[in-house]
């Protein structure tokens, strides 16, 4: 049996009260800039003044003392108890209806709003450290053995694009890099800005393929040493190539209180090669962000979530394949969708069946090269961690798409079939992947989120449809304070 659904979903235990525990993820500069909340205190009481056993005044002072204690309790309770926003029960979906009958169960909808923003901003226990257990349980990724489009460096990607609004290049910009990409938000709040390829993607320029980033062989003991025992190194060497890639992954850790820490591992590719149905390929796009989430409770891994196109699957940690203690996940050929098993990953469409394909190709260890950050999901604040203190943060706030805009139908490269298209919009970045999620699944809270306790290599999924590609997320899935028009 795996962990209980309450533990897996990250529900809060009843043992912790008050503001979120120490270790809050927040920039020190944010603390300096936030106005301190008013403190409520009462003058200290003097026992020698208020208790006089030899005087008749004792009978008068005691009720006054009790009255002051009552007032102090009311003030202290009302100003330290976190405010919890409640959601209508009908909006929480089947998950809450199933488990709300458990008297020890706590509504998972409060996990990311237990503390008010000002409570978090004024937390004196500020830290930007990545807990060691996050790296101890970092995922290992099997890339496909015949992959054509390998992991890419987001910094390198920016050398090959031009930002466009409505298919028109934005003029007068400096060379974009990871420290100024957020400047594009000056144009329609960045929402309609597309990082458009300078090359015709059908010419397959080298930078799209990322061949220079294929993970190294694990025969080098120095590279393999971080995995610990000789047995673990031997397992990896026997299974496939694997190890260091020159394309850095992106690690975001988020402390959600009550011992819950989410570790998001993001993987970037400059090109997504779509699926084929009836010998017709659809769903190609420039730029591709995929992720795996490991949810921890009190330092122990509980759930592994893998992104699959616009949705994904969640598994108990005990269910997934592991090398040592580290979960093993699989990246599908072309689409880079993430799965927990190798083999064929079929989907049902209205007019047929398509599938992703995974295998035990080169083994990528993202922990060997990554940009590591801590993120405050209440204040939408990203900070470089102690492990990569010089990692730039500005790129994270870019609100546009990391690839070309959906090609119009009069473009010779474009065609449509049954509501699907050959080329679709490039994706939004990690900031828009529902980082503040309460349940581990990235969809709406009303959507089911099933934690699987076993691997099912033969599972058939229902294809949700890509349409024109990634679009502005629903309000509950956006970064805090971001409205429909993109304004905060």
Word description of this protein:
- The protein is of the alpha+beta class.
- The protein contains eleven helices and 26 strands.
- A hairpin with a 2-residue loop joins strand 8 (249-257) and strand 9.
- The radius of gyration is 26 Å and the shape is globular.
- Mean pLDDT is 73; it is low at 1-26, 28-66, 68-126, 219-229 and 231-241.
Quick overview:
The protein is an alpha+beta fold and 488 residues long. It has helices at residues 5-9, 28-33, 47-50, 58-80, 93-99, 117-121, 132-136, 154-157, 206-209, 221-224, 230-239; strands spanning 24-25, 126-127, 140-142, 161-165, 168-169, 193-197, 242-243, 249-257, 260-272, 275-277, 280-282, 285-297, 300-308, 311-316, 322-323, 326-331, 338-339, 343-349, 352-358, 363-364, 370-376, 381-384, 416-417, 420-421, 451-452, 461-462.
Mean pLDDT: 73
Q: Describe the strand arrangement of the main beta sheet, using strand numbers.
A: 22-21-8-9-12-13-14-25
* Counted beta strands: 26
- Alpha carbon gyration radius: 26 Å
The 3D shape can be described as globular
How many angstroms does the end-to-end distance come to?
44 Å
Residue fraction in strands = 25-35%
- Low-pLDDT regions: 1-26, 28-66, 68-126, 219-229, 231-241
Helix content: 10-25%
């Amino acid at each position: 049996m795996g962990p209980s659904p309450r533990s897996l979903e990250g529900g809060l235990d009843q043992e912790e009260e008050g503001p979120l525990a120490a270790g809050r993820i927040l920039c020190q500069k944010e603390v300096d800039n936030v106005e301190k909340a008013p403190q409520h205190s009462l003058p200290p009481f003097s026992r020698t003044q208020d208790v006089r056993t030899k005087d008749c005044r004792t009978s008068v002072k005691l009720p006054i003392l009790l009255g002051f204690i009552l007032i102090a309790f009311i003030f202290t309770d009302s100003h330290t108890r976190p405010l919890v926003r409640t959601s209508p029960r009908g909006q929480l979906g089947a998950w809450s209806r199933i488990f709300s009958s458990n008297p020890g169960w706590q509504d998972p909808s409060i996990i990311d709003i237990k503390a008010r923003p000002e409570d978090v901003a004024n937390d004196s226990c500020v830290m930007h450290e990545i807990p060691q257990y996050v790296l101890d349980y970092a995922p290992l990724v099997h890339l496909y053995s015949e992959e054509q489009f390998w992991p890419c460096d987001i910094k390198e990607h920016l050398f090959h694009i031009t930002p466009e609004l409505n298919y028109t290049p934005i003029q007068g910009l400096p060379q974009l890099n990871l420290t100024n990409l957020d400047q594009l938000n000056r144009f329609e709040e960045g929402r309609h800005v597309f990082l458009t390829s300078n090359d015709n993607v059908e010419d397959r320029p080298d930078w799209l393929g990322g061949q220079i980033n294929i993970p190294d062989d694990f025969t080098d003991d120095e590279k393999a040493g971080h995995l610990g025992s000789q047995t673990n190194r031997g397992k990896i060497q026997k299974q496939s190539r694997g190890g260091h890639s020159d394309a850095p992954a992106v690690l975001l850790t988020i402390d959600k209180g009550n011992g819950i820490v989410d570790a998001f591992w993001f993987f970037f590719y400059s090109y997504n090669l779509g699926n084929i149905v009836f010998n017709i390929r659809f769903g190609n796009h420039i730029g591709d962000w995929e992720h795996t989430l490991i949810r921890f409770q009190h330092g122990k891994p509980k759930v592994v979530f893998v992104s699959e196109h616009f949705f994904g699957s969640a598994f108990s940690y005990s269910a997934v394949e592991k090398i040592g203690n580290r979960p093993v996940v699989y990246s599908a050929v072309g689409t880079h969708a993430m799965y927990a098993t190798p083999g064929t990953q079929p989907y049902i469409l209205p007019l047929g069946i398509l599938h992703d394909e995974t295998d035990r190709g080169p083994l990528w260890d993202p922990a060997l090269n990554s940009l590591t950050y801590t993120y405050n999901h209440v204040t939408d604040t990203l900070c470089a961690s102690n492990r990569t203190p010089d990692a730039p943060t500005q790129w994270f706030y870019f609100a546009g798409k990391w690839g070309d805009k959906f090609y119009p139908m009069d473009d010779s490269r474009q065609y449509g079939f049954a509501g699907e298209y050959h080329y679709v919009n490039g994706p939004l970045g990690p900031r828009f992947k529902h980082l503040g999620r309460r349940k581990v699944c990235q969809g709406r809270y009303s959507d089911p989120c099933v934690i699987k306790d076993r691997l099912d290599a033969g599972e058939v999924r229902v294809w949700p449809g890509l349409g024109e590609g990634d679009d502005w997320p629903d309000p509950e899935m956006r970064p805090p304070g971001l409205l429909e028009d993109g304004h905060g």
